[in-house]
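Hello Y.,

Per our agreement to keep a running log of every chain we model this quarter, I'm adding this entry. I've kept the format consistent with earlier entries: sequence first, then predicted structure.
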Amino acid sequence: QVQLAESGGGSVHTGGSLKLSCVVSGLPFADYCLRWIRQALGKEREGVATVDGYGEPSYSDSSKGRFTASKDSGKNTFYLQLTDLRPEDTAMYYCAVDLEHGGAWSCSDVAVNAATYWGKGSPVTISS
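Predicted structure for the entry above:
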């Protein structure tokens, strides 16, 4: 059974930082595309970052320069460091394993907001 266990959400003021974690278990292979996708209340899902099978991150225009995605292969754990947070970053943040769009080695299309397996989400709230 594939599971994605998320942690690290919270509430901070504008300019603050948070670090999200996502532990992936149950997959019979180690290399896959991991997506970070957020959804604000009343809005569509938005991809903010990906990490491919090499551990190489890609970012959306809204996250570039402020968010850092990384992978600890030994722990099957992915991280999303959020810095310089703004009220418009308020959303539920999901990590998701994508086995359908591009594969483990071609994961740079951050705009894809669909995936195969999803975590339950981490709430991030930014107050001004």
